[in-house]
């Protein structure tokens, strides 16, 4: 009798307790640890032509570039620039037509403060294997006007870099920052440079090319009120230029105090989406998504709860928003009208607790994002996921759920075998207990 009870108890435990402990609702396909690195501020991950990924940022005081395959496995890693007191870092990256990469960011062009170890470049070009081909410096080698590259885009006959120049900078205090747009050829040589009389508090600045070869720039500006600056009020400013960088028009969007732009996304109708954080209530985080037409007029504006890290345009003309919460992060997809279509919470439970930074679409209709572990934010990760369709369960990949799926299958098979043996023995009239 005791043996029979043991058999049935084992079968019950296996089928009742072990089977449900591995969730089939997870949308995460895999998670790859990248190590203790800093990620690029404007764009920390791009999809490469071979279906893999490139991650950019900073490590050991230099520009970091990591090349990963389509499964997120590291192929190679390079760090450019020597370690210095003021670390350099790559803010943005592009893959070039020859399979190489351009990395744009902040060097440390103050060798008289840090000795010979300053990283004296803002832009570097590497080949498809990460070997350095050339480097360029667009500031000066003195204290007066160090330049910080923030965004880089491909443009007609070369590339265009948006950044800011720090006038009156010193090792103990930041200077005033002015927005700078630099047009370069394919070898990084300057074709023209435009500096705009807009003082910005820090580096948030985004650029995209217009249909006529001109540019749209999104950054911050102090709100001008009754012939005086409101020094505690920073607002979005959208600048439209001609192909030589000359201003055609600029518009301020005074939404709330201390706005914080995070993305400038072109739309299919020639307009743009401006996305960023806003302060509505002192004790609550909010972010806004503003749709403007091609001349900067507001068409609609949506406000969501949370803190926006980045926004991405999707091939179906929707938008992906990566947001930060107290316990991790949430990734949302919104329609072209700003309605939320779906969301995935990375706050523990079915999905790991991760703060998402930047998101890209993959070639197999999924998504990947860079992020930081909530329990150890210094450790950065690359995550691939695919949201569930309404009424449809997303099949976990063999990589992320291989062990749970295998155990579940074994448990289920074992339970069935045990029950089958018991039934057959009973049918044959054998005494079991």
Query: Quick one: biggest sheet?
Result: 5 strands, antiparallel
Cα shape: globular
In the residues, how many domains can be counted? 2
Number of strands: 29
- What is the gyration radius calculated from CA atoms? 26 Å
CATH topology name of the largest domain, in short, is Methylamine Dehydrogenase, Chain H
User: Share of helix among residues?
Assistant: 10-25%
pLDDT < 50 runs, ≥5 residues? 1-24, 111-119, 225-231, 390-415
The CATH superfamily of the largest domain bears the name: YVTN repeat-like/Quinoprotein amine dehydrogenase
Q: What is the mean predicted local confidence, pLDDT? A: 79
Please give the CATH class of the largest domain: Mainly Beta
Please give the count of helices. Answer: 3
Give the end-to-end Cα distance, rounded to a whole number of Å.
Answer: 4 Å
Strand composition percent: over 45%
Structural class by helix and strand composition: mainly beta
Please supply descriptive tags for the structure shown above.
single chain; 433 residues; mainly beta; Methylamine Dehydrogenase, Chain H; 2 domains; 5-stranded antiparallel β-sheet; 3 helices; 51% strand; disordered N terminus
In words, what does this structure look like?
With 433 residues, this protein is mainly β. The chain has two domains: 55 residues; 277 residues, Methylamine Dehydrogenase, Chain H (7 Propeller), CATH 2.130.10. It is built from three helices and 29 strands. The strands form seven sheets. Strands 2, 3, 4, 5 and 6 form a five-stranded antiparallel beta sheet that branches. A hairpin with a 5-residue loop joins strand 13 and strand 14.
């Amino acid at each position: 009798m005791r043996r029979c009870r043991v058999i049935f108890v084992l079968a019950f435990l296996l089928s009742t307790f072990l089977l449900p402990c591995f969730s089939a609702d997870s949308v995460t396909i895999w998670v790859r640890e990248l190590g203790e690195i800093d990620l690029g501020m404007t764009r920390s991950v791009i999809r490469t032509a071979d279906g893999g990924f490139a991650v950019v940022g900073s490590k050991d005081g230099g520009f970091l570039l990591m090349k990963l395959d389509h499964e997120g496995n590291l192929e190679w890693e390079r760090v450019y620039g020597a370690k210095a007191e003021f670390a350099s870092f790559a803010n943005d990256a592009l893959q070039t037509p020859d399979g190489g990469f351009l990395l744009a960011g902040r060097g440390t062009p103050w060798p008289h403060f840090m000795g010979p170890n300053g990283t004296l470049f803002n832009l570097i070009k590497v080949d498809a294997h990460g070997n350095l081909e050339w480097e360029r410096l667009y500031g000066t080698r003195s204290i007066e006007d160090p330049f910080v590259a923030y965004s880089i885009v491909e443009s007609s006959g070369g590339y265009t870099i948006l950044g800011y120049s720090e006038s009156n900078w010193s090792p103990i205090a930041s200077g005033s920052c002015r927005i700078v747009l630099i047009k370069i050829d394919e070898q990084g040589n300057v074709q023209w440079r435009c500096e705009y009389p807009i003082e910005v508090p820090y580096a948030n600045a985004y650029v995209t090319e217009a249909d006529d070869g001109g540019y749209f720039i999104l950054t911050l500006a102090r709100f001008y009120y009754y012939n005086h600056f409101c020094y505690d009020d920073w607002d979005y400013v959208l600048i439209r230029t001609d192909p030589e960088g000359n201003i055609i028009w600029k518009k301020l969007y005074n939404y709330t105090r201390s706005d914080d732009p995070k993305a400038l996304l072109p739309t299919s109708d020639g307009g743009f989406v401006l996305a960023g954080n806003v302060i509505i209530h002192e004790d609550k985080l909010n972010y806004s998504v503003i749709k403007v037409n091609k001349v900067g007029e507001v068409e609609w504006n949506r406000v969501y709860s949370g803190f926006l890290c980045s926004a991405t345009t999707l091939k179906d003309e929707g938008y992906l928003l990566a947001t930060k919460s107290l316990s991790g992060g949430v990734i949302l997809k919104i329609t072209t009208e700003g309605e939320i279509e779906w969301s995935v919470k990375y706050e523990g439970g079915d999905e790991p607790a991760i703060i998402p930074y930047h998101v890209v679409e993959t070639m197999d209709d999924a998504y990947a994002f860079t992020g930081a572990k909530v329990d150890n934010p210094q450790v950065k990760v690359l995550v691939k996921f695919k949201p569930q369709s309404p009424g449809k369960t997303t099949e976990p990949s063999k990589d992320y759920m291989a062990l749970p799926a295998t155990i579940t299958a074994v448990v289920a098979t074992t339970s069935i075998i045990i029950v089958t043996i018991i039934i057959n023995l009973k049918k044959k009239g054998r005494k079991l207990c």
